[in-house]
Amino acid sequence: MSEDIIFAKDLCKTFNGLKAVDGISLRMSRGECFGILGPNGAGKTTTVRMIYGFSPVSSGTLKVFGMDIQKHARLIKAKSGVCQQENNLDPDLTVFQNLVTFASYFDIPRATARQRASELLRFMRLEHKEHAKILELSGGMQRRLVIARTLINKPELLILDEPTTGLDPQSRHQVWGRLTELKDQGLGILLTTHYMEEAAHLCDRLVIMDHGRILVEGGPLDLIHQNVGANVIEVESPSESLLNFVKESDLDHEELSHRLLIYTRDGETLFGKVSEGFCDRGCSLRMATLEDVFLKLTGRELRD
Amino acid sequence: MAVREMNWLPQISPRFVRILQRNSQVLRRTWKVNFLPPVLEPVLYLLAFGAGLGLLVREISYQGEPVSYVAYIAPALIAINIMYNAFFENTFASYVRMYYQKTYDAIMATPLNLDEIITGEIVWGAVKSLIATILMMAVISFFKLLVYPQAILIVPLALLGGLAFGSVAMCFTALVPQIEVFNFPIFLFITPMFLFSGTFFPLATLPNWAQVLAQVLPLTHLVALVRALAMGKLEGQLLLSLLYLVLFSAVTFILAILLMRRRLIN
Fold first, then answer.
1. ipTM (interface pTM)
2. B107 to A105: CB separation less than 8 angstroms, yes or no
3. What is the CATH number of domain A229-287?
4. pLDDT tens profile A78-112
5. What is the fold, at CATH topology level, of the domain defined by A1-79+156-171+181-221?
6. Residue numbers in B near A82 (CB within 8 A)
């Protein structure tokens, strides 16, 4: 129990009678990277906002570092680093001042703060921007600076709410590289994202949430194997006979408009059958991904 | 459980000083723009009213004695300046930090809590009133319109006045849905006070009902206090004005924190 860095049981959050988080339970241990995935409005952000003490808990238990978040928010926040979804760097200050001023909120002595700020700028490859204003930075640089800022108090828990949303692939990979380094140093990371690749890349364990509830929990590979198997056969404009075959053989599949997905553990054999017997074109075999699991579990309709 | 029941009370540690440090760091870069008005404005007003209106209204009666019109309005200009500095800091500037820059959100993820952030912002507004007052007093002293040493007490008074107007400003900041809506408290609250708080003419010239109404306005009491200190004519009745400002500050301060919690913590 004391090993749990985050412990939640039957956690609920209600806004004006609406349940945004509806009785979730989860545990995260030290040094682990734990992901919360889900479509927009699933309750991911509401969950992490409760965990970093921003949003009061409506009901249930929530302990961080073994302490009740309602009673010990200040202590918990002193040991955590939080990267919120919206960019909230201080535009009135320079890059360097942002870090040093943020350090002051944690009562870090000024000399230590300046030294730490320099180290973090180097770690995030921002040392050349030390005196720049925030608005002069690109989106990727701003994000890296936010992450540098979350590390200023040497946190034991890093909470990242969609850390790479809106970044170009170069910046995203840069951020992932840094986060992997931090993970290797033993830092616990709680991450929300709707990039499956990000979750697969970084998370040891994850949950997929929808409508305020947890649908599945496990390691990325386990989740793929349990929910969709090893491979996916995609068929463009499937023929009537293929559809009949799939139904008769009782294969795990999804029918989309003009597209058929067949989930299977034994891709090669089945693919041979399907491609020779029923397809003249637009038939492919690929590895199953977390995205398949995600879409299968949360559905394909738009969420906005 | 007793703790829960007392939850509405502001929970403040000395950490709020961090907000003052953050804001003063920003001010060090922009101080010239910020403090030009308190230096220039009194000169303009004193020229306009002294050389212009002052020729028409040469003297005015204060506590039964005639004083020059310029000497009458100079303390009012200081009081108005106290009101403006805190009020505009804790409306427009605070709103920008809260709503557009999300500065409060970022700080709330650190050991500071919202009550401390709001306290820091309000005290900062009062500090701006204080600095502006010192600058303005330096200028007005050149015109020999302040009686020393009594006038020195205007400096701490500026802090109290700043707390009063900063706290009420923060209440509006917690309530307005968008920044343009600040025009309402300015037209309905600040401008009437600017004109009808015994600033440019004595309250006694107003009809009775308006005199009573004016006693509710915090600026009326601040003007009365600053004027008495500026002229070195202290009297017992002023303690009531002081008490009113203290109470007004305390009530609006707690209200500002409660309204801000309602707005930002959910």
1. 0.88
2. yes
3. 3.30.70
4. 999 999 988 899 999 999 999 999 999 999 999 99
5. Rossmann fold (3.40.50)
6. 109
